[in-house]
Amino acid sequence: MITFEAKINEKTVRLYAAYPMKNAAGAIFKTLTQVSSTGETDIFSDKFIMAFGWSFFYMSERKDENGNTFYVVQSNDYRKNPMNGDRTDDITLTLLAQNMQVETVRTANVQPEVTTFRDSILVLKEAMNAPDVYMNRTEAAKDGDSGWYFGLLDDPNEEDHAADDYIRIPSYELFKFRSEALRVLEMPVGTVAVFHENVMTALVDGNDQPLKFTTEEERKAAAEKNRAEFEAEVAAAKARAGLKEVKKDDV
């Protein structure tokens, strides 16, 4: 986990996340700065909540070892129960989900339709542990409904399921049994996504036209590139630190 730090209104704000979330962390800082610059919202209040994409973000006041005040950006804790207000300092999981969603929307070149972690998904219980499933988004029936359905691919009993064959879950619970499905949550009404195990294999729009999406191999290649860039930055930082020490010793 890396500590990202920024100054907002002369106050120190820290964000804790894994290095690959560097760009997402920068986007959070930028948005907080914009919100604060209006003067209409006190982002340093313990009552502050920022809705940013799929998740919510909060500010927590802390003191460092010298008694200086700083603020930590927190998000909902999806390893516990965010519906009960559980929060975490490590916002890697939140930023990972949002990165996945932004990437899918941009690659497909569509207008996003927001789903929050609290919005519900209708799930066929039998599909939760099945290898081949699909997700389909229709118009939301009411507030708090995402419009998403999670079901069996080629379900022979699709017309015969009883009401108790289904369950409604908040969208964040996809982390528990099909995390890859989080990737499509911001896709518009009409979208259908197909998954084999935890890999998306097809994505189409409401007219059954295929949409572009990044493959597992492309994402792995991008992850390797990010890791290489991170290691290069660390090596450069160590080299600079070593150079400073040498110069200090020479004085």
Q: Can you give a write-up of this model?
A:
The protein has 4 helices and 12 strands; from the N terminus they run ββαββββαββββαββα. It has 251 residues and is an alpha+beta fold. It folds into 2 domains: 2-97, no CATH class; 113-216, no CATH class. Strands 1, 2, 3, 4, 5 and 6 form a 6-stranded mixed sheet that branches. Strands 10-7-9-8-11-12 form a 6-stranded mixed sheet, with no helix packed on it. The two termini are 36 Å apart.
Shape: globular
Helix/strand/pairing category: alpha+beta
β-strand amount: 25-35%
Radius of gyration: 21 Å
Q: Write the element-wise H/E pattern from the N-terminal end onward.
A: EEHEEEEHEEEEHEEH
Number of domains: 2
Q: What is the share of helical residues?
A: 25-40%
Distance between the termini: 36 Å
H/I helix tally? 4
Number of strands: 12
Low-pLDDT runs: none
Oligomer: single chain
Average pLDDT value?
A: 89
Largest sheet: 6 strands, mixed
Can you give me a brief rundown of this structure?
With 251 residues, the chain is of the alpha+beta class. It is built from four helices and twelve strands.
Question: What's the structural blueprint in terms of helices and strands?
Answer:
Blueprint (H helix, E strand, L loop, with lengths): L1 E7 L2 E7 L4 H16 L12 E3 L2 E9 L5 E8 L10 E2 L3 H17 L11 E5 L7 E6 L7 E8 L13 E5 L3 H4 L14 E5 L2 E6 L11 H35 L1
Parallel strand pairs: 2-5, 7-9
Antiparallel strand pairs: 1-2, 3-4, 4-5, 5-6, 7-10, 8-9, 8-11, 11-12
Which structural traits does this protein have?
single chain, 29% helix, globular, 4 helices, six-stranded mixed β-sheet, 2 domains, 251 residues, alpha+beta
